[in-house]
Design a protein that fits this description.
It is a single chain. By secondary structure, the chain is of the alpha/beta class. 43% of the residues lie in helices and 9% in strands. It contains 21 helices and eight strands. It has helices spanning 48-55, 101-109, 144-154, 160-166, 203-211, 217-232, 236-245, 251-261, 264-275, 284-299, 305-312, 334-353, 359-366, 375-384, 401-410, 428-436, 445-462, 469-485, 498-501, 503-511, 515-519; strands at 8-16, 19-27, 30-37, 71-75, 80-84, 93-95, 134-137, 177-180. The strands form two sheets. A six-stranded mixed β-sheet has the order 1-2-3-4-5-6. A hairpin with a 2-residue loop joins strand 1 (8-16) and strand 2. It is elongated.
Length: 523
């Protein structure tokens, strides 16, 4: 697809919002009509409905003469029918052959069009709608210059006779109105634009828009930025292939041309030279005209499909699927290990210094695991450890990972996991116990509870104990609660998930006097 190949170009199977058109027609790189082709002998009456659907399915941004596309053909190779949607009462009629481009343009320019414009970004450049009297902003615009360009469309002057020719009931244009639906006029704006104005859009998508003839400063700047990054890591052969498609010029020249086309200062100088005025006297209309010309010229080489194919071609690379890598050594970086040792030492010193001040530490020093230890006390300890260098957050168990990995670096033989299994803040208990007794393994509380629960169930089964499905549901819920809260009390049965099972009353019905034993099954 190369819409610059000639003045008039037909593109086969063009994708539209409403489907694939058999042909779309370009004149002077702007879309002007579509062709719906049928096999020889096919009756064309009624096919104009399908043509009209395609004529109204153009994606935004593609250059065109009007929406819906003004001209539609139905064609079998022998019979041709034509619809001019610019007529007051358009209908399909037989014609001897396709019109010449000049005939279509003449028809388009001489047909009355209502003064209603529906537009988006393209109103910023390349348009000069002098009768415009109302601008409606319905989204934010962050660029100050972009905003000023859009406002400039409303400030265009027009003589009374020209205004009356399109709006008979208007005397003269003395002002224009801005309808600000998003508070745009009150928002701060940047005075410059980034080079890559569409960073989330792929190079393939940008080139596809260019191939359709879209001309827009954002497109030129974005394409220049993407090719600049691409050229930096491509081989010499790639550069030579690109140069062959751009008349032997270096890639850097094309990139510079793209950036220069949207350079306001350079365009102002060009406008001053073309219109024989000083740079300060250049009007917005003149500046827009020059920018549109420069952008169109800069994008012209990318109409070449061979160039687009090279730009999207991946570099050759060798993928070895057979040679196995061999691990030579595995160890912590010396500096990282040193930092880990410092953190572990600081943590142990904190535990020693606060064993008489913080309840959770006092209990873990003097009593068996979970004997009297409450979740609220563990959270209090976590808050005390929110200081540097520990940075523990009671609401985010993953903040224990730094401490856990530090112990793993210092005593890898004592740490069962890398800390990724830490799911609850109560895993801080395991860290404190290991800091107090370095010979004990460092394991998440949940893993310890799970193992003890499994052992307890095995002992119960060995002694002839059996549990119903409902009892097992309760036991698993009790185990999970202990894993996340260290212990369980009767009051906890009034909350989820136990209240959904029937609460404390149902628990006593199921377990009777042995309920207290079940409540400590994983302790």
């Amino acid at each position: 697809m190369n819409i610059s190949e000639g003045r008039s170009v037909a593109v086969r199977e063009f994708p539209l919002k409403t489907g694939l058109a058999d042909y779309t027609l370009y004149v002077n790189e702007k879309m002007i009509g579509i062709v719906e082709a049928k096999p020889e002998g096919h009756t064309l009456t009624g096919v104009e409905i399908q043509s009209a659907k395609y004529a109204d399915g153009l994606e935004p941004g593609i250059p065109h003469y009007s929406i819906p596309l003004p001209f539609a053909y139905e064609w079998t190779g022998l019979v041709t029918r034509f619809t001019n949607s610019l007529n007051p009462h358009p209908r399909s009629r037989d014609v001897f052959t396709f019109h010449r481009p000049d005939e279509l343009l003449q028809s388009f320019r001489n047909t009355y069009n209502p003064r209603i414009a529906v537009t988006v970004d393209m109103i910023a450049t390349g348009t000069d709608v002098k009768p415009l009297k109302c601008l409606i902003f319905m989204r934010n615009i962050k660029s100050w210059s972009y905003f000023e360009q859009m406002k400039g469309r409303g400030s265009r002057g027009i003589d009374s006779d020209s205004l009356k020719s399109v709006t008979p009931d208007a005397a003269c244009k003395t002002r224009f109105v801005i309808v600000d639906a998003v508070g745009l006029c009150k928002q701060d704006k940047n005075h410059s634009k980034p080079l890559d104005r569409q960073p989330t859009v792929s190079l393939e998508r940008v080139l596809k828009e260019v191939s359709k003839g879209v001309v827009h400063p954002d497109l030129a700047s974005t394409l220049g930025a993407k090719i600049s990054r691409l050229a930096g890591n491509r081989s010499e052969g790639w550069h030579k292939d690109v140069e062959k498609q751009i008349d032997g010029r270096p890639v850097s020249h094309v990139i510079s041309t793209l950036f220069d086309s949207v350079d306001a200062d350079k365009n102002r100088e060009l406008a001053a030279s073309k219109f024989s005025v000083t740079p300060d006297q250049v009007t917005d209309t003149q500046l827009d005209e020059i920018e549109a010309e420069q952008v169109r010229t800069a994008l012209l080489p990318f109409h070449n499909p061979q160039l687009r194919e090279i730009l999207l071609r991946p570099e050759h690379q060798v993928i070895d699927k057979f040679t196995r890598d061999q691990l030579l050594t595995s160890s912590f970086d010396p500096e990282a290990k040193k930092r880990a040792e410092t953190l572990v030492t600081s943590f142990r010193q904190f535990i020693e210094d606060n064993k008489d001040e913080i309840e959770a530490i006092s209990i873990l020093y003097s009593r068996p695991y979970a004997a009297g230890l409450r979740c609220s006390q563990i959270k209090d300890l976590a808050r005390r450890l929110s200081i540097k260098p520990f940075h523990v957050d009671e609401s985010q168990p993953q903040t224990l990972l730094k401490l856990w990995q530090a112990f793993g670096a210092v005593h890898p033989d004592k740490v069962d996991t890398n800390g990724k299994h830490c799911k609850h803040i109560v895993d801080l208990v395991a860290l404190v116990r290991h800091a107090i007794d370095p010979d004990s393994p460092l394991r998440p509380v949940g893993m310890t509870v799970e193992e003890r629960f499994t052992e307890w169930l095995s002992d119960q089964q060995s002694s002839g104990g059996e549990f119903t499905d409902e009892q097992m549901q309760w036991l698993v819920a009790i185990k999970d609660h202990i894993a996340s809260s260290v212990m369980i009390e009767q009051d906890d049965f009034e909350y989820a998930p136990f209240n959904q099972f029937g609460g404390i009353g149902r628990a006593y019905e199921l377990f009777g006097t042995s309920l207290k034993a079940e409540m400590s099954l994983a302790s």
